[in-house]
Specification:
Length: 300
């Protein structure tokens, strides 16, 4: 029986640990990843955006923010402010950066203004401080107290980061944005779930029942050809699966799960029932599965 208090503070930690109750359950009940991975690899296009010197984690978070602002220019990422709430001065600076991003976000079919890219990079850095619980290793440390201003935050993105973000955005104008509704009935950016209060988890985007995760990984490198190729690792499969099972009350009415591999312009969607059936090899009662996962997380 699971303990009353779930020891994994985040979904990432729970999925990475093969001995966590959640990971063991997913491995046991949804073991058929290889057919899905093989089909994904077979259909994957060649890479369009190569890597560079920019920190890959920060780049991924910055691209995520840029996409959210394009989808909703009124978007306010509270997560980018959380770590700095004790300081009104720093909150004011970050809030100004958010305003800059919002004002530059009208680029769904065109090149992204540099200010959007710079603002997204800065917000990725402030969010990383919140996620890590410290800014000991953050580039933000160089700003100190007196130089923590919106102007300085907008200068932090190095040239390679701006180049890659612009390339990723350009691919998205043809491979991502056209596949999403211009006027969605319901759109949630950075959604959390009922079970997130037991094990922290927030997804990227849910639009009209479609759960979408954005990935900017480079893919595996072939030693024989020197080329990179796209793939869907087990962590991604489990992440999409866990998000749907965390939505215990069916708040978002998820009926499709999607992965957008940004460097490849590869947008792949599975109907939720097909996704669950393929991975489990059986017909899935999602309401019952959500109840099981809730108990595994320590919910009563």
């Amino acid at each position: 029986m699971p303990s009353r208090k779930y020891i994994y503070s985040s979904l990432t930690a729970a999925i990475d640990d093969k001995q966590s109750p959640l990971r063991r359950y997913l491995d046991s009940e949804y073991p058929n990843r290889r057919p899905l991975q093989a089909a994904y690899r077979a259909a994957a296009p060649p890479i369009l955006v190569q890597g560079g010197d920019a920190h890959p984690g920060t780049l991924g978070a910055a691209f995520d923010f840029a996409v959210r602002f394009v989808l909703d220019p009124e978007y306010v990422p509270a997560v980018a402010i959380h770590a700095f709430r004790p300081s009104r001065r720093r909150v004011k600076a970050i809030t100004h950066v958010i305003a800059v991003a919002r004002s530059a976000a009208n680029c769904r079919t065109s090149l992204a203004p540099e200010l959007l890219l710079r603002a997204s990079w800065a917000l990725a850095l402030t969010t990383e401080v919140f996620r890590a619980g410290t800014w000991q290793h953050s580039p933000l440390r160089q700003l100190g107290w007196f130089h923590f201003t919106a102007e300085r935050l907008l200068r932090l993105a190095q040239p390679d980061a701006l180049v890659q973000l612009q390339q990723l955005h350009s691919v998205a104008t043809t491979s991502l944005f056209p596949k999403l509704p211009l006027e969605p009935r319901r759109q949630t950016l950075g959604p959390s779930f009922a079970a997130s209060r037991l094990c922290s988890a927030d997804a990227d985007i849910i639009i009209d029942g479609q759960l979408i995760e954005l990935k900017t990984r480079l893919g595996s490198l072939s030693q024989r050809t020197g080329n990179r190729s796209d793939s869907i690792p087990g962590t991604d499969i489990n992440q999409l699966l866990a998000y749907t099972l965390f939505d215990q009350g069916n708040k978002y009415k998820i009926d499709r799960v999607s992965l957008y591999s940004a460097r490849y312009g590869n947008f792949t969607t599975w109907p939720l029932n097909d996704y669950l059936t393929l991975l489990s090899g059986r017909r899935v009662d999602i309401k019952a599965e959500r109840a099981i996962v809730w108990r595994l997380l320590g919910g009563s």
